[in-house]
Design goal:
Elements: H1 7-13, E1 17-20, E2 32-36, E3 39-42, H2 44-63, E4 68-71, H3 75-88, E5 92-93, H4 105-124, H5 132-149, E6 161-165, H6 171-179, E7 184-188, E8 199-202, H7 208-227
Parallel strand pairs: 4-5, 4-6, 6-7, 7-8
Antiparallel strand pairs: 1-3, 2-3
Helix pairs in contact: 2-7, 3-7, 4-5
């Protein structure tokens, strides 16, 4: 199983720092250790336990060939999400969430296919038959589409699970995933409702070091799962008794 970060590593990364106590969500109560200078301190023992459980789930999903969509569009999360999603070969959203990304996936996949075709045409030289001005317009269109659907360009079907950094920031992603009954993994800071998701990871969703430590752990679990895929076995044919 993928290695769970130690409590010391989480302390150093600031995973335990929540929001001001006036902004907390009551359902985070079981995961709060104490309050210090009006700031909630998250119980890292609870974080360690929840993270360990989630990493096992993620590893099993990857071993079974399932797809996890990584979502984190705010400044502190976007570069981290892109880096580790790419490392473990999973789709990701790091720029603006396109409304209908999940609930109108057919349209989004059409946009992604357009991006793929434009890239292929540029690579093959097919766009050189156009004027320099038209080629520039194609380049700008590729850049625009890449910023919108580049991270899900190779996503051929709806993801099996959605992983979210900051439920407050990604309300639309949360709503669409729940509408489609997709399982949700999320880093849950002290100001969000952990009961909205299937696999909450109590922790700081604002500090880059905290986000990176947790996202890196999930990506590691994906890689571990992929390295030990579940091989489907074909049941043996029933024995045939010869007729007399």
């Amino acid at each position: 199983m993928s290695k769970t970060p130690t409590m010391l590593e989480m302390l150093k990364a600031g995973v335990h720092f929540g929001h001001r106590s006036s902004k907390w969500h009551p359902n985070m109560g079981p995961y709060i250790f104490t309050t210090k200078k009006n700031v909630h301190i998250i119980n890292l023992e609870a974080t360690e336990q929840k993270l360990k459980e989630t990493l096992q789930v993620v590893q099993d999903l990857a071993a079974n060939g399932k797809t996890i969509l990584f979502v984190g569009t705010k400044n502190q999360a976007s570069a981290v999400i892109e880096k580790y999603a790419k490392e473990c070969g999973m789709p990701y959203i790091t720029n603006r969430w396109l409304g209908g990304m999940l609930t109108n996936f057919k349209h989004v996949s059409t946009v992604a296919r357009k991006l793929t075709k434009l890239k292929a045409d540029r690579e093959s030289g097919d766009l050189k038959k156009y004027t320099k001005k038209e080629q520039l317009e194609f380049d700008r269109e590729i850049e625009r589409l890449d910023s919108i659907v580049g991270g899900v360009e190779n996503l051929m079907k709806l993801p099996d699970v959605v992983f979210i950094v900051d439920l407050q920031e990604e309300k639309t992603a949360l709503r669409e995933a729940k509408q489609l009954n997709l399982p949700i993994i999320a880093i849950c800071d002290s100001n969000v409702d952990p009961k909205q998701v299937d696999y909450p990871i109590p922790g700081n969703d604002d500090a880059v070091k905290s986000i990176e430590l947790l996202v890196k752990a999930l990506a590691g679990a994906v890689l571990d799962g992929k390295q030990n895929p579940v091989v489907a076995t074909v049941p043996a044919a029933p024995a045939v008794t010869p007729s007399v």
